[in-house]
Specification:
The protein is α+β, with helices and mostly antiparallel strands. The protein folds into two domains: about 130 residues, 2-Layer Sandwich (Beta-Lactamase); about 200 residues, 2-Layer Sandwich (Heat Shock Protein 90), CATH 3.30.565.10. It is built from ten helices and 13 strands. Strands 11-12-10-9-7-13 form a six-stranded mixed sheet. A five-stranded antiparallel sheet has the order 2-1-5-4-3, sandwiched between helices. It is elongated, with a radius of gyration of 28 Å.
């Protein structure tokens, strides 16, 4: 168990790649795992860190260069050097010194170290991609929605200036929330303020064709939620459900607490879709304009685990219901604001 815990600590140290700082923290633990007198970690261009050994020692540096050039474990006079290959690229060399290590043990630990570095790099790349997609979502207000909202507001300027002023404020609120630069989490209450602004603008556009119902149980409002995971569900309900259906339609948004979890649903009685298409949409392979659902599903799974992905219930001409389940516990490093009272329309 102690060996496994030490291995996990090393993996955490290397999560951001084989940097000098990470190598400095990992080298003593690698030395202990190998039972070596000393260990040194080299990057592609030179020494990074060592424990019980001078990283600039000529013999160690020479052997590291040889292992990097040959791509295999090299040994000489009680010194062993094994290349670290991550993603098909040489990222460094592990050098061990002393009677304890063996060529095979050094090679196995080097392979494990390289795999830990590769996992960290892959996770970092995935995080960068998710944040890039999130930035794109924040910056993207549909031109179609923009034009229709402003058209609705303009049409009311003379006939109902008070209503036009209120809608303009709602539009500013929605745009401000969508474009704001903030942390990765917000409260359910803040997400639903933006949703209410969005729905009010859409009700002005659709008139009697669209009715909405929103209710959040008071205990759900302060819960932390990844930003922009709820609004895309409401937008898809209108764009791909209600807008394509002739006659009136309804969107119902509900949130309730179930023990240590929250359950939030977005349901419409629109045109629905084939369940196979819904699965393709979640996989990012569906119809154009539904990338928001795939992004939400990926981010929920990344933050909370695969069991917290979106659940979509739908069938042609039977509407669509999308369910989000998330823990009520606060993610590390986030302190949600206090919210009091319920919110319904």
């Amino acid at each position: 168990m102690a060996v496994l815990e030490q291995a996990m600590r090393i993996a955490r140290e290397l999560a951001d790649g084989l940097t000098a700082a990470a190598a400095t923290r990992a080298a003593p633990q690698l030395r202990d795992l190998l039972g070596a007198d000393g260990v040194a970690l080299f990057g592609p261009t030179g020494p990074l860190a060592a424990a019980g050994l001078d990283a600039d020692e000529p013999e160690a540096a020479s052997l590291a260069r040889k292992a990097a050039a040959s791509g295999r474990t090299e040994h000489r006079a009680g010194r062993y050097a094994a290349p670290l290959v991550a993603g098909g690229q040489l990222v460094g060399v592990l050098v061990a010194v002393g009677p304890g290590p063996t060529p095979r043990a050094t090679e196995v630990l080097a392979d494990w170290t390289a795999a830990a570095v590769e996992r960290g790099l892959m996770e970092s790349a995935r995080t960068d991609l998710e944040r890039s997609e999130l930035k794109r979502m924040r910056a993207q207000i549909s031109p179609h929605f923009l034009a229709n909202s402003l058209s609705s507001i303009t049409s009311l300027v003379r006939s109902d200036p008070e209503r036009a002023r209120d809608l303009l404020n709602r539009f500013a609120e929605y745009a401000r929330y969508s474009l704001a630069s903030r942390d990765d989490f917000d409260t359910v209450a803040e997400e639903f303020r933006a949703i209410e602004a969005y729905l009010q603008l859409e009700r002005a556009r659709f008139g009697a064709r669209l009715s909405t119902s929103v209710f959040m149980a008071p205990e759900v409002l302060p819960v932390a939620v990844p930003v922009l995971v709820l609004q895309p569900l409401v937008e898809n309900a209108i764009r791909h459900g209600i807008e394509r259906r002739p006659g009136p339609g309804r969107v119902v948004v509900q949130g309730s607490a179930l023990g240590t979890e929250c359950l939030i649903t977005v349901e419409d009685d629109g045109v629905g879709m084939d369940p196979a298409l819904a699965q393709a949409v979640l996989a990012g392979q569906g119809r154009r304009g539904s990338i928001g659902l795939a992004n939400v599903d990926r981010r929920m799974r990344a933050v909370y685990g695969d069991e917290y992905g979106l659940v979509v219930e739908t069938a042609p001409e039977a509407g669509t219901k999308v369910t989000i389940r998330l823990p009520r516990s606060t993610p590390a490093g986030y302190l949600p604001q206090q919210v009091i009272g319920g919110w319904s329309r």
